[in-house]
Amino acid sequence: MSGPAGAADPAGGADRLKLFILAGEPSGDRIAADLVARLMRRVKLAFSGVGGHELEALGLRSLFPMSDLAVMGVSDVVLRLPLLLWRIEQTARAIRAAKPDIVVLVDSQDFSRLLARRLKQLRYQGKLILYVAPSVWARAPQRAARLRPLFEEVLAVLPFEPAVMQRLDGPPTSYVGHPALGERLARDVVERGPLVLLPGSRDGELRRHLALFRQVAAEMGGHAAVDGMVIPTLPSLHDRLTQAVADWSVPVRIVSERAARAEIYRQAVLALAVSGTVTLELALARVPMVVTYVLDPHQARIYDKHGRPPVSLPNIILGRPTVPELVQAAPDAAAMIGAVRALLDDKKARQDQIEAFGELSNLMETGETTFPRQDPADRILAHWDQRVLSAG
User: pLDDT below 70 — which residues of the chain?
Assistant: First the structure.
């Protein structure tokens, strides 16, 4: 990439892809950085956008802090609504000024949808790609068709999503896998090792889960199978979590270097994880887990309305209850402690999870027969090539 790192090149040129990429949370930042790295190996790339430390490591100067978009639940959104509305307008103006060939919006579904709609109002002529499909298969299937006028293509990270989007008349959708596929581990049951705690990364998740995880740590610290506690996290959260666990009754190691995660997962006896992309990462590393999530009141009403569907990615992808889920409207530390203890005491249950995760890994690697896995960079470049040809 020539010119200032991460900055759109106003000179453009038919041989230079001008990309605007937006990630609103850490899991999206990782996906976006993987895509940018792939594109850098293939073409001359000038990119701008919004992201976190992984995109910034590739040269991005983020338009504003990614943390402004990392919200979950109606209460968090309401608190930040004026800021979010301003960020939509600010981002739309930046895209209109930069005139990128392609805009890739990574997850952050509500923000991405509203931004895409605003760009259409402003008559943006470039390509709009949504990376990470919305969970229309879990709720609001009518949303799929509403996305068709907004996005040229959706890049899905779950193998069954292209077929679902096709059935629901959504935009063309391709399965492209997930960066965590590059970090798969082959491992067996660990008799004794660290208990890995993953309390989330958004502010609201940490507020709702840290006190519960503290109680789990206090109860499980003396279990025969547990050899210490560790929280893998982001560099931006290292100091906050270090302070949060300082007065816990058991020592907890805070690790923010991503390179260290593979060894942590290799040694782990078990993980307790807040539902999210990290459950897919754990499954591909074959770490047995208990998954939990404490809902805010609005989320709880929606969850009940839709019949309390599975929330963890391993259970969703495999289509069966492979890992225990504790989705709670009211915080219940005793239930978490019971689920963690039960799995620690049951070596066969941990082995069954590991075997199921091998099946999941194979499916994620290949995709489904009708929609095999593709390289996300190939999909982006296909749209760029079409634009260059049509311009000619």
Answer: 1-14, 71-79, 137-139, 385-392
Domain ranges of the chain: 16-177+368-391, 184-365
Cβ–Cβ under 8 Å, residues 208 and 330: no
List CB contacts of 303: < 8 A, sequence separation 6 or more.
Answer: 295, 309, 327, 329
Contact yes or no for 340/332 (Cβ under 8 A):
no
Please give the CATH topology (third level) of the domain spanning 184-365: Rossmann fold (3.40.50)
Task: Return the closest-CA partner of residue 378 out of 38, 19, 23, 127.
Answer: 38
Q: Residue 174: what are its φ and ψ, rounded to 5°?
A: -120, 145
Q: Where are the alpha helices (DSSP H) in the chain?
A: 26-40, 53-56, 74-98, 109-121, 143-147, 161-167, 203-220, 238-244, 261-267, 277-284, 297-305, 313-318, 333-344, 347-366, 376-391
Tokens of 246: 């300082």
| Superfamily the domain 16-177+368-391 falls into | Glycogen Phosphorylase B; (3.40.50.2000)
What's the whole-model pTM score? 0.86
Q: Which residue from 222, 218, 187, 223 is spatially nearest to 344, judged by alpha carbons?
A: 223
Using the structure block, give the residue that is written with the tokens 């040809």.
Answer: 389
pLDDT tens by residue, 148-191 = 999 999 999 999 999 999 999 999 999 999 999 988 999 999 99
